[in-house]
Every structure is written in C-alpha cells, then in structure tokens.
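Re-run requested by the PI after the first attempt was lost when the workstation crashed. Everything re-entered from the original request form. Ligand of interest: flavin-adenine dinucleotide.
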Amino acid sequence: MAIHRQPLLQDLSCDIAIIGGGYSGLWSAYYLKKLLPDSRIVIIEAKQVGFGASGRNGGWCSGFLPISLSEIEQKYGRSEAIKMYNESFQTLDEIERVIEDERIDCDYHRGGTIHGATNAVQQTRVRHDVEQLHDFGFGEEHIRLLAADEISSRLNINGLLTASYTPHCAVIHPAKLVQGLGRSVERLGVQIFEDTTVLGYSPGQVKTNSHTCRADIVIRATEGFTAQIKKHRRTLAPLYSYMVATTPLSASQLASLGWANRETYHDARNMLIYAQLTQDKCIAFGGRGAPYHFASRVKPQYDMHSVIHDKIIHSMHEIFKVSKELEITHRWGGPLGVPRNWQPSVNFERTTGLASLGGYVGDGVAATNLASRTLAHLIVGDNHPLTELAWVNQESKKWEVEPLRFIGINGLLKIFESMDRHEARTNRPDKIRSKLLDFFL
Ligand SMILES: Cc1cc2nc3c(=O)[nH]c(=O)nc-3n(C[C@H](O)[C@H](O)[C@H](O)COP(=O)(O)OP(=O)(O)OC[C@H]3O[C@@H](n4cnc5c(N)ncnc54)[C@H](O)[C@@H]3O)c2cc1C
C-alpha cells in the first residue's frame, strides 16, 4: 500500500538532497545511509514515491545492461566490458539480499530470460548475442542456446525457431518494490517529501515550487522527467514504453504454455517487446515504439496511447495465442530516460557536490541498484572498485535542439519499425535501413 507523505513545508538544510523518489533516488539513499549513518538525507519527490517508471515498469529485474559488451569494449576496452557485466550480473544477488534483509515483499522470482527468434534474421541475432557473451568469457552457465525440446517444455509459444536462456533475470512487482524501498529508507532515517517539485538546482541548493533545500550534495535521479528541470531540457529524452496486463490464466491455459519457472520473455525484433508471468498468473506484456513528443514534453495524457496499446495486444496475441481468451484488465505507460549516446552513467563532481545517475533507456530495474551503489561509494570517496566502472563520470553529450531531436528520434523509431516488417516479410536483414541507423545513432 502506498503511503502519502507531507510536502516540503519550510526551507531546510541537510547533507544530501536527492531529487526523485524512484529506484535511483531510493537505492542511493539506502546505500548512502548505510555508509554514512549519521548523515541527514532527504528525498524530494514531485508526486509520490514510485510515480515514475519505477512504479509502473515491466518487472524485468535483469542483469543485462542497455549497453552491450562490444559497445563497452569499443569505448573503454575489453576488461572494462567484462568488469561491468560481472558487476551487473551480481547485482541480482545484491537486490535479493536487500529484499530479504528488509523484508520487501515484491513477488521476486529469479526464473531467467528466454530470448526467442521467430524469423531467420532474429535467429542470427539470438545466436550472435550468445556467441558474443561466450567470446567475452561468459560461459554456458550465463547464457546458452536451448534445444528445441527444451524450448517447448519451458515456454510453448507460437513459431519459435530458436531461443536462448540466461539465468540473469528475475521478475518483480515494480510498485511493491518501490514502496518497500521507500519504507526501508525511512526506517533508516531518510526523510521523504512528496508533492514537491524541484524547479532547478545548483551547488549547495535545490529550489522547489515552495521552499529551498540547502545541501552539501545534490543528486538528480529524475530519469524520464529530467527535461522539465531548468538547464536540463536536453540531458535525457523521454521515450514512452507501454504495457497491458490480462486476467489470470486458468490452470489448463497455463499448462498449455508451460512457463513453470516464470521466465521473462522477449524476442529479437528491433522494436522491443517484453513479457512476464506475474505471481497471480496474469500476462504482463509491454512494448516500445511510441512517438517521441516535441521538446521532450511529458504529460499525464501521454501515459495512455490507444494505437500503441492495440499494437502491443496484437503482438501478445501473436506470441501467446491463449491470451486471446483472456481479458485485458490494465493498460498503462510511462517515460524512460534516454541519453544522446543511449548509455547510462553515474556522475559526481566533488568540487560542486552535484551528482546524477540514470539514462537506463528501458533497463533500469536492476541497473538503478548498481548505479546507486556506485554513486554512494563515489560520494563517500572510499576508493571502492565500483567507482572504477566504465560508466562513472561519462555523462553523454546533450541532445540536439528542436526540431532536430524530434526528427532524429522519430526517424529512428520509424526505421526500427520498418526493419521489423522487412525482416518478417523477407527473412533477410534490411541492409539499407541498417546503414541509415548508423547515421541516426
Ligand atoms: C512501461 C515501462 C516498462 C518498463 N519495463 C522495464 C523492465 O521491465 N525492466 C527494466 O529494467 N526497466 C524497465 N523500465 C525502465 C525502468 O522502470 C526505469 O529505468 C527505472 O525505473 C528508472 O528509475 P529512476 O528512479 O531512475 O526513475 P523514475 O522511476 O522515473 O523516478 C524518477 C522520479 O523523479 C520524480 N521527479 C521527476 N522530476 C522531478 C522534479 N522536478 N522534482 C521532484 N521529483 C521529480 C518523478 O516523479 C519520479 O518519481 C520500464 C519503464 C517503463 C515506463
């Protein structure tokens, strides 16, 4: 159950002010309070804890980052890529530990992920992903191709040609996790103010719609909403992801699918889809591809998109035939934060006391934990190995000014969509659009 908290009712001073009460803000508060128990930490949240993506995501708590091993290698070297992925995979153990210690009931189950292919191009991609991990020294215990009979015994879905399996993913109930974290940090002595919007911040102070908070350290953890803060219009672009959920599967419907281990499922199309089986046996199914809104606008009415929701339902019916027999009980959506280089980062400047974390694109559930632990150690300055990770102090350059940003992002989304259509129709890669992608990225 969500708790309602007081807004900021007066000016105040503290050691660390965190803007945003999602996973990033809460995990940061959690680890900072563990490392600096005497510090006065406050979280300032515009709406309520978990209002953002943290309270309404697809519940994939995945050890995979939104940046691939080869992308990290290209920029920072091979050993940095391996280090980053090792830490990211181990993050699930850490989340599991905290959930247990703090008794956060969030329907956590580590069943892994199945990555499927339904056409020849997708098959190449699934195989390539497995080969890439193996090539970096992550063996079959980290990811492997499934034999045909194992695919159908795990998850019996339509038209699957190839699939891989990795154990590095758990399912969670997003809102239960974020509410549980909120309660945990309060137990540790962190103060949370809700219904208080930060308008802007600078070294030493955070200006809200009502009062000012003075703080030695200010952490921005506002992800998809960042563009609304003064001087941050072009820091992270909000892209929307949308989801639906069904009525529960009956015992016989579930038996027809298998899915006994509640693996998360996605396929290798370009425009991402993602599914999980919730603890109460409903299918929660999501997808990206919604148009970007001019000037990085984020509005309540954008949380619903009938055309995209219909496309998502169509994809779900295609993949899980049995879902046609179920009712759609919930439709929702929300903004993700996308940096210009599509790579998350953790940033701290000791001279100004300003910090930020985010840009997880659509993979923040587990990554927020790793980013927050990293940030806590950076702030404490204890030379912890996490502070050497490749994403530290690597903030992306800003997005282009409008209308270039609008044309660029929406052009990219159109290319992904056309590539998927081409690949499904011809069973061949779309070389022309692949070249175009290089131009946009
Ligand atoms: C529909 C959907 C499905 C997703 N599915 C998955 C998934 O399955 N797996 C996965 O890994 N990732 C998924 N993601 C992404 C993931 O949820 C996010 O990366 C993650 O929750 C980011 O957490 P955060 O705390 O950084 O940001 P948020 O959760 O967005 O929190 C930011 C908070 O800051 C507050 N805020 C913003 N501006 C201000 C301001 N000016 N003043 C005060 N407060 C402010 C907001 O109200 C919000 O509560 C999904 C996202 C969406 C939208």
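Saved to the shared folder this time. The first strand starts at residue 12 and ends at 19.
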